[in-house]
Amino acid sequence: MTVSPELDRSFRAAAAAEGLLDVAYALHDTPVGRLLVAVTDRGVCEIHYDADPAAEADRLARAFGSRVLRSPRPTDAVRRQLDEYFAGTRRDFDLEVDLRPAREFGRAVLEQLALVPYGEVTTYGTLAQRAGRPRAARAVGAVMNRNPVPIVLPCHRVVGATGSLVGYAGGLDRKRTLLELERALNPSS
């Protein structure tokens, strides 16, 4: 059975409007590629580079509940703020973030990460210290690699101890692009 695009859109919109979704997601084209943007009733729960939507929907269902559906409307605020960020008109995101799957240390690190200002960088070691575990720089790197909400939680602003660009789940080219957008790179980076 084939469903018309209009009926499909109506179904997805109605499911979201009635609160029948655990997670709504959409694909969003940006200057750093297509992002999968997902939200729960608590906030944005995932932004993923180069996502396979079916695989991500399965992963989201395991983390947040089985009612996962591609439904763009609930993601509108996130997508709009991302567009504003890439246009250079937004420096701070005004979004709730749903970090329920994160463990205690990871949540502490991500909360400290959220405080790194636009246009500035910090190091893994500094974040470890701010999260209460000064010798856990490598563990911070692992948290950054699994950051569920890159860009909004700006893991691209975390650099190596020498200021070098290291480690980014989206790839170093994207990290450099984001830091250039924010004018946060030193000429030697």
Tell me briefly what this model is:
By secondary structure, this protein is α/β, with parallel strands linked by helices.
Can you walk through the features of this model?
This protein has seven helices and six strands; from the N terminus they run αβββαβααβααβα. The chain folds into two domains: 5-87, Methylated DNA-protein cysteine methyltransferase domain (Double Stranded RNA Binding Domain); 104-181, Orthogonal Bundle (Arc Repressor Mutant, subunit A), CATH 1.10.10. The chain has helices at 5-17, 53-64, 76-87, 104-113, 124-130, 137-145, 172-181, and strands spanning 23-30, 33-40, 43-49, 68-70, 122-123, 158-159. It has a four-stranded mixed beta sheet. Strands 5-6 form a two-stranded parallel ribbon. With 189 residues, the chain is of the alpha/beta class. The radius of gyration is 17 Å and the shape is globular. Helix 5 crosses helix 6.
Count of runs of 4 or more consecutive helical residues: 7
Report on the biggest sheet: 4 strands, mixed
Strand order of the largest sheet: 3-2-1-4
Spans of at least 5 consecutive residues whose pLDDT stays below 50 are: none
Q: How many extended strands?
A: 6
CATH topology of the largest domain: Double Stranded RNA Binding Domain
| Residues in helix, % | 25-40%
Give the full name of the CATH homologous superfamily of the largest domain: Methylated DNA-protein cysteine methyltransferase domain
First-residue to last-residue Cα separation: 55 Å
Structural class, by secondary structure, is alpha/beta
Tell me, what's the shape? globular
CATH architecture of the largest domain: 2-Layer Sandwich
Can you give the mean pLDDT? 92
CATH class of the largest domain: Alpha Beta
Task: Provide the β-strand percentage band.
Answer: 15-25%
Number of domains: 2
